[in-house]
Amino acid sequence: MKDAAKGFGYLREGIGLIRQSGLRRYVAVPLLVSTLVFSAAIYFGIHWLGVLLDWLLGYLPGWLNWLRYLLWPLFALTGVLVVFYTFSIITNLIAAPFNGLLAEAVEKHLTGQPLAEVGGWQALLKDVIPSILSELRKLLYFALRAVPLAVLFLIPGINLAAPFAWALFSAWMLAIEYADYPMGNHWLHFTAQRERLRGRRLLSYGFGGGSLLLTMIPVVNFIAMPASVAGATAMWVREFRESE
């Protein structure tokens, strides 16, 4: 569990890093994207999540109405996890090229060594298509695993454990999502990235769990994406870079 705590600590470090004067300009676009998209997520949650849950629970027979008090919090937690994780995917898809620049700047800040392979702002347009393709590859990886996991919510009894399984899956996916930016800057392909993260699974879950927690807190989740990119870069520098 020491590795899990260390992974969570990198997210805290990421929050501090994005406040550094030399890095703030790289945070501007990811922060703007996060603010707009998560504002939409909060609006959706407030206006529609309650309606959806009431509709689902409306199928309970009258003599089981007492179960509403047990199932509503469970369904609400599931809804929050799904809604905010889905919107997190959207924010990363939109801001992917800028997140790569942020990861580059953070790594340079931490190591004092510029990345020869990455060209900075002048390379942004060239990197747009590869960045979006990388996001789509991660989205496919997510979809192939999320669909079977979603079936658990439909199986009576097992569906009580489904939110916890979804939370673990989301933590793993967020670790993959954000580690891609610093690792991708070093030309590590998607399979190699996953192998390294699997080699430090508890570290990855700790980091991804912290990112998921930050994502689920309204308003605070505006900084979730840039803080996670910065934290994942710090984790790369200290835990994975030596094995490159």
Please give a structural write-up.
With 244 residues, the chain is an all-alpha fold. It has 8 helices and no strands. The protein is elongated and about 65 Å long.
Brief synopsis:
This protein has 244 residues and is mainly alpha-helical. It has helices spanning 2-17, 24-57, 68-111, 124-151, 162-184, 190-199, 201-215, 224-240.
Structural class: mainly alpha
The largest sheet, given as strand count, sense and whether it forms a barrel, is:
none
Helix content: over 70%
What is the averaged pLDDT score? Answer: 79
As a percent range, the share of strand residues is under 5%
Order of helices and strands: HHHHHHHH
In angstroms, what separates the terminal alpha carbons?
Answer: 25 Å
Structural shape: elongated
Number of helices: 8
Give the total of beta strands.
Answer: 0
Radius of gyration: 19 Å
Low-pLDDT segments:
none
Ordered list of secondary-structure elements with their pairings:
Layout: H1 2-17, H2 24-57, H3 68-111, H4 124-151, H5 162-184, H6 190-199, H7 201-215, H8 224-240
